[in-house]
Amino acid sequence: MFVFSFDVPNSLIVALIFTVAFKIYYEATKGVCMSSKRLDGKTIIVTGSNTGIGKATALDLASRGGRIILACRNLKKALVAKDKIVEKSRNPNVLVKELDLTSFTSIRRFAADVQKTEPKLHILIHNAGCGDIEQKTTEDGLEHQMQTNYFGPFLLTNLLLGLMIETGEKEKENVRIVNVGSDGHFSVGDLNLDDLNFSYERSAKTIWSPVQNNLWLPIKIYGTSKLCVILSSCELARKLEILGKPVTVNSLHPGGVYTEFSRFSKILSFLKSPAEGAQTSIYLAVADEISNVSGQYFRDCKIAQPSELARDKEFAKKLWEVSERLVRLEPKEKFF
Ligand SMILES: NC(=O)c1ccc[n+]([C@@H]2O[C@H](COP(=O)([O-])OP(=O)(O)OC[C@H]3O[C@@H](n4cnc5c(N)ncnc54)[C@H](OP(=O)(O)O)[C@@H]3O)[C@@H](O)[C@H]2O)c1
C-alpha cells in the first residue's frame, strides 16, 4: 500500500531540485542588453528607483552618462540610493524628485516640476509597482494596486507627453517610454471596463471561504493592472504613430526577480538578481536596433507575445477612454 509521507528531508531534496532546475532555466534564457550606447546629454526618469529593478536600471543608465531623475515616494530611501548610484557610476548628474503614484496631486506636482526644470526628456521608465496582499483605496478613491501600477503611470505619461514629443522633434530622433509590465497579466481572462476599480468584487466579502473572501482578488487585481499597462502601451503607440510623433512606447516582463517585491520568501533567491531583471528595461531604453519599434511587449530583451486579451486593439481603445475619465484628465492635459 502506498502511503504518502511528507518528511522534511524529502521535501528539502524536492525544493533543492526545483531551485536548481529554475536557476538553470533562468541562466539559459535570461536576456542581456549588449548595447554600449552612451547617454550623455540625455535626461531619463526612472520611477521607483530607490530599490530593486528600478535602482539597478538607474545605476546602469547613470553609468552611461545620462542625467537621471530618481522618481520616488520615499525621499530618505531615494537619497541613500542616489548616493550609491553616484558613487558606483561616478556620474554626479543624478537627482531625486518626489513622486507618489497613489496621489494624483503628487503626480501633477512632479510633472509640473519636471516641466519647469527639464528642457528635455528623452526616456521615461515606468518601473514603480506594488503587489498588495490586503485591499486598500487611494486618496483619489481608486483601488491601490490599480492606481500604483496603472492609473498613476497613465496620468504621468499623459502629463509628460508634450515635453517628450518636443524633445523628439527638436533632436530628430525617437524618445522612449518604457513600461514595466508583468507576465502576471496572463492570469487575467477578462476585464470589466465598467468596474476597473473593482468596486463590486471588493465589496463582495464573506468570511466563509478563501474564494468568497476574495483572498485571490489582490492577485487578480495585480494581473489586471499589468494587463492595462500592456494594453495602454499599445494604444499610445498606435495614437503616436498615426500622428507621426517621435515617441516609442513598449512594455516588458522583467522575469522573476529577487527584490523587495518578493521579500516575503527567502526561498525565491534562485530568481534573477535586480541587475539581471533590469536588462530588458535597459535594452528598451538604449538599444539602437529597436529605436523605431513601438507598441510591443518584450521579455529577456526580445519581442514576446502577450496574452490574447492584451492584443485586443479595440479593447485597448476603450480602456484608454475609460482611463482618461478615471484619472480625471483635464482638457488642457489631453494630448489627443
Ligand atoms: N520582482 C519580480 O519578480 C517582478 C516580476 C514581474 C514584474 N515586476 C515589476 O517590476 C517593477 C519593479 O519591481 P521590483 O521587483 O523592483 O519591486 P520593489 O523592489 O518592491 O520596488 C518597487 C519600487 O516601486 C516603488 N513604489 C511602490 N509604490 C509606489 C508609489 N505609490 N509611488 C512611487 N513609487 C512606488 C517602491 O518604493 P518604496 O521603496 O518606497 O516601496 C520601489 O522603489 C514593478 O512594476 C513590478 O510589478 C517585478
From TrEMBL:
Cited CDD domains: retinol-DH_like_SDR_c_like
Alphabetic keyword roster: Oxidoreductase
GO molecular function, a single term: oxidoreductase activity
Top-rank taxon, per record: Eukaryota
Protein name according to UniProt: Dehydrogenase/reductase SDR family member 12
A Pfam family annotated for this UniProt entry: adh_short
Organism lineage: Eukaryota, Metazoa, Ecdysozoa, Arthropoda, Crustacea
Keyword Oxidoreductase: yes
Species annotation: Daphnia magna
InterPro entries: NAD(P)-bd_dom_sf, SDR_fam
